[in-house]
Amino acid sequence: MIDSNAVHGSFTIERRYPAAPSKVFAACADPELKKSWFAESDTHEIEAYESDFRIGGSERLTYRFGPSTPFPGAKLTNEGVYHDIVDQRRIVSSSRMALEGRAISVALETIEIAEVGDETSLTCTFQGVFFEGADGPEMREQGWRDLLDRLGRALAS
């Protein structure tokens, strides 16, 4: 028997935004728009954010945690690949997150977008495995909830 401390977790988060599906999709697809809600924060300093939004394209975010965080000065890197893109409907990507160069998780993320009346429904499904020293499923879910709230604020501005 293999001794493993890997923890598996999945969650689904749904949000409704008072914006057209094209605007919600663009906020996920356009690197500058996505950077504003996905990468920028007052809790860390971005070292790099790049996104090649196409099937097979990559996304990379590197930042250092700020002084008021549990890991002040630590470097976090999130590297991903886009696997499926259906214009204004779906984005499927995988990602590997590392803290100070040590892998802490690998995930599959699916964003689904649908028009519902005069609003847009966004469903985020996350499936991941967390390694030793990782934040774990509960904290990652809260992180995605915060990100999707930030997306809502970005869409409103």
TrEMBL record:
Fetch the InterPro entries from UniProt: ASHA1/2-like_C, START-like_dom_sf
Domain Activator of Hsp90 ATPase homologue 1/2-like C-terminal, chain residue ranges per copy? 19-155
Family per similarity comment: Belongs to the AHA1 family.
What's the protein name? Uncharacterized conserved protein YndB, AHSA1/START domain
Provenance organism: Sphingomonas gellani
